[in-house]
Predict the 3D structure of the following.
Amino acid sequence: MRVAVFSTTSYDRRFLEAANDHRHELDYYEPSLSAATAPLTGKAQAVCAFVNDTLDAPCLERLAKGGVRLIALRCAGFNNVDLKAAHANGITIARVPAYSPHAVAEHTLALILTLNRKTHRAYNRVREGNFALDGLLGFDLHGKTAGVVGTGKIGQVVLRILGGFGCECLAFDPYPNPDVEALGVRYVSKAELLAQSHIITLHCPLTPETHHFIDEAAISACRPGVMLVNTSRGGVIDTHAVIAGLKSGVIGSLALDVYEEESELFFRDHSAEIIRDDLFARLLTFPNVLITGHQAFFTQEALTSIAEITLQNINNFAQTGHPVHAVTMD
């Protein structure tokens, strides 16, 4: 099959080529996929898209008219896809349901430890010859209550790691995971998790039910000074409410690897430009906020798995008309 790969970087090309092994024609495009860039697909029968590509109805209609029959997402989330429009246009959607839960879980802990012990600030101080400790005070994770929202594969690994630090772990998920319960983790209501947790970390998919899961009401229910960490999807938190929570002190510290309006920012170099997103720029002014650019997944193991599963989806579709991991409207 001929496959148009969008939002391409050098590492995408390297890992996809290794997984492809010359079986399909892969055409790489740097721009993100949208209705405006859809004509770049040319005569491709399949498109490989990423997490911030815009697969809305206008885009899907253009792709279908060009002969595209498969969209192979090289990510787990599919909230950026209009599934009804895909079905109406005869386009099959496939995804990578899981790659390396350890990659995201370990990055989550890196954010927690960095934010708590302020190692990012200490690093810059020491390089300038400043060895003062004022402003670098942290707390022991041991004995603290950590609340994990979403207990799929990633949340389960996070809970196991936090338990190793000696945290008392609470979980919230409409669908309790028996493997998590076997760890001795207690499932509680959203209200109890918010009220009891010193640290709250989010690992749920973005759905209508989880959109702005952390909003003004949720923040007001939190323990004062809570650490909030989000490595799931940006839309799980209401950025306006979080900024207000930081200003009031209810949120004592915040770590983000995702952002609700990240599609125009992340995965690109904007160092020579002015950031025009006022909310994001405001977040950067807080000394107790740590942001990484959607890199939690970014390990060799995860990229290898993502590329291999993506190509498995394409191979199966080419041979049988059905990808291994199809996304349905159910």
